[in-house]
Amino acid sequence: MAATISTPQPRLHIKPGTTWSEAFARCHEIAPEAFDSDRLRNLWGGEWRRTGNPLHSLSPVNGSPIAGPPMLGQEEAHEAIRAALDDHKEWRDVALAERKARVRAAVDAMDTHRELLALLLVWEIGKPWRLALTDVDRALDGVRWYLDEIDGMIAGRGPLPGPVSNIASWNYPMSVLMHAMLVQILAGNGTIAKTPTDGGAACLTLASALARREGLPVSLVSGSGSRLSSALVRAPEIGCLAFVGGRSAGGQVAAALVDTGKRHFLEQEGLNAWGIWDFSQWDTLAAHLRKGFEYGKQRCTAYPRYVVQRQLFDRFLEMYLPVVAGVRFGHPLAVADDADPLPELDYGPVITTDKATELAAKVDEAIAKGGVPLYRGDLADGRFIPGQDTSAYVPPVAILHPPAASALHHAEPFGPIDTIVVVDSEAELLAAMNASNGALVASLACDDESYARRLAGELQAFKVGVNKPRSRGDRDEPFGGRGASWKGAFVGGAHLARAVTVGPDPNERLVGNFPSYSLYPEV
């Protein structure tokens, strides 16, 4: 019998044209005012400045060096705030038609460089290619929608007394942070943003350079939250604070705002839960759960908690375990052949090696204190380049009954870790789903939709889906949170436009969570 000769499989490698050095060189060529050959610049007063100490940053993709944010001190941050106020005073007098024309031109410029912006997101925060493109597209398409709708939204309203200060987490630099800034500008305000320290600096720098070229009042600064807080949160020049982040940082920001009376909206995390009760549509649920692993659940509307009726637990596991075992993760830019398309992955790395270490410690803690490991993936299941640094990658994990003394019991992990709780009664279901004192979203899987809607009224989540997930939403869909997950005005559609403008009624009550009242829209 003739011997069978096996053909060696080609080794994975980074697709040509997608390396960090190539991406950064293109940025320097497109926007030399914002990108030096060796670093990024800060922007205020219409000038890109070679100031601040660049942070030593590593890409979560493979641990290689990338351009870090140039970190400013408090004095320079105050200077930037004063310059942003000057921008604001000039911009608020620009006619709406001119504002729309300039914002549209900036959006078109960003669209021209759509793929480069997405590639920067891959290297800086580890998004797979498809999801990085989606982040860019959602930002640009969303602003185009506001361009068509803004006239009616701000009719009879005027800009805030000062610029909007934006502090946001690293996970959605374009579709959350840049999108919000462009809408704030469209409404007549100057803006200043702090670059997220963990990632997104180059992407935001390129987008801000393109916006500034069109005359938009954009300022972009980098620095630690603790050092810049007095400027970006409490400075008297600021007209509004927009914050997206975790509860710990959000609580500190809220405390700093207490006596300022500033307009604000603070989006904070919550343990979003999916309850399963008297349910049989397992194939439909499986598709939702698989999609839920996108970007490693590193988003504010991810569902990391499943609360399951005991009588359905065997059927749930039969559906769930193949889903979690089929999750695809790995290097977002690795191909076997130069001509291959970039891989279709559910997620790449988490944001940093430190975050991966933190998640592993939380899993170990939960198991050590009595949680049951239902599923633990292995890095060997990932799609990696031979020899690459994989320290920022976390395989999917599922823990049954995380003990009350563990962090995974009550807090969102912000990573590809699910926790599952089995319950016997409606009261237990509701209690387990409300474990975090407020959430942004929740869902119920139940064959009786009327029963599910009744239960939904008892959940401490802003949006509740019945047999479907809920998301932040786009265009005119409102977004907010209940309990500790949100403070201040809600956003989305007309609510965002109203949050960054002033109406004729000095006693206007915006939709949102405020110290003296909470007012919720229909969702």
UniProtKB/TrEMBL annotation:
This protein's record includes keyword Thylakoid: no
A Pfam entry, by short name: Aldedh
SUPFAM superfamilies listed in its UniProt record: ALDH-like
Keyword Transferase belongs to the record: no
UniProt keywords, alphabetically: Oxidoreductase
Domain of life: Bacteria
Aldehyde dehydrogenase domain residues: 53-496
GO MF assignments: oxidoreductase activity, acting on the aldehyde or oxo group of donors, NAD or NADP as acceptor
UniProt-listed Gene3D superfamilies: Aldehyde Dehydrogenase, Chain A, domain 1, Aldehyde Dehydrogenase, Chain A, domain 2
PANTHER family xref list: ALDEHYDE DEHYDROGENASE-RELATED (PTHR11699)
Stated name of the protein: Aldehyde dehydrogenase
